[in-house]
UniProtKB/TrEMBL annotation:
Residues 24-278 form the EAL domain. It is found in: Membrane. This is cyclic-guanylate-specific phosphodiesterase. The lineage of its organism: Bacteria, Pseudomonadati, Pseudomonadota, Gammaproteobacteria, Pseudomonadales. Signal peptide: none annotated.
Amino acid sequence: RAKDQGRNMYQFYTEGMQDKEVMRLELDKDLSHALANDEFILYYQPQLDLTTGKINNVEALIRWQHPRRGLLAPGEFIPLAEESGRINDIGRWVVRAACKQLAKWKGTPYRNIRIAVNLSGLELDDDDLVGDIQAALKAEQVPPSSLEVELTEEIFIQNIEHNLNQLSRLRKLGVHLAIDDFGVGYSSLAYLRDFPVDMLKIDRSFITHVTRRHDDAVITRAVINLAHNLGIQVVAEGVETQEQLNFLRHHSCNLAQGFLISRPIPPEDLERALEEGLLFTGVTASS
Ligand code: C2E
Ligand code: MG
Ligand code: MG
Ligand code: MG
C-alpha cells in the first residue's frame, strides 16, 4: 500500500485521489444543473444506406455544453450520470429532444429520417421508461417508427426477463431496436432469437482493420449473414476509409456510419450537408 512506502508517497497518493474525487464531485454537481440550464445538445451522425446511397437514418449523440469546460463528449459524463442515477432524466431529455427534431423535420425533405437514440441499460430498470417514450412521441406527434433505440449487449446478461418485457413493449409501440457495439459484449447469441431486434451495429473494433485482417473480415461477413438470415439489418460503425465502405457494400451490409461519411454534427449542419449534397456517399465513377 502507498502508506507503507513512506510519508511522501502516502501524501502524493491521497492528494492525487482527492483531486480526482473533487473533480468528480464538482462535475456531478454541475451535472445536477445541466438539464435545468439547458446545457445538453444532440449531435447527429448520418448512416449511409449502401443500397440506395441515401441518408434516411441518423444517430443522436449527446454533448454537454459545460459553462467552463466547453463541449464535453458523453464519455466524460455519462458514466457519472449512470452512477448517480441522473441517467434516467438525461435519457428522457434525449428521447424528447429527438422527438422534437423529428417534429421539426415533418413536411421537409428530411421527413423520412429515422433517429436512433442511445439508452443506457440502467434505464431499462425503470418501469416508466416505455410509457414516457410513448408520451414523448405523442406530445410531438411523431410516429414511433421514426425512433430507434440503441442498447448494448449488457442488457442481455442480467434482469433478462424484465428487459425482454420492456423491449417487447417498446417494439409493440413501433419503436425500432438496435444492438449497439455488437460483438464485444459477453452475452450469448440466444437473445437474437428471444428479443425483438431490428438492427445490429457491428462494433468499430471489427471494422477498423476489416480490409487488412482476415479474422476481422471473416467475423464481419459472418455477422452480416447471421443478421440477414434472422431478418435483422446491419450497420457498420466507425467506417473511415473508402476501402472499408467498398468491402461492406460488397458484402451486403445495409448501412455504414463513420467519419468517412460524416462526424456527428449539429442538426443545422446536417440539414445543410444533406441539402447541398455535401456528404460523402462513396459513389464513384466506377460504382
Ligand atoms: P456509440 O453509441 O457506439 O457511438 C459511436 C461513437 O463513435 C460516437 O462517439 C461517435 O462520435 C464515434 N464515431 C463515429 N464514427 C467514428 C469513426 O469513424 N471513427 C471513430 N474513431 N469514432 C467514430 P461519442 O459521440 O463520443 O459517443 C460515445 C458513446 O457515448 C456512444 O457510443 C454511446 O455509447 C454513448 N452515448 C452517446 N450519446 C448518448 C446518449 O444520449 N445517452 C447515453 N446513455 N449514451 C450516449
Ligand atoms: Mg450508439
Ligand atoms: Mg456503437
Ligand atoms: Mg461504441
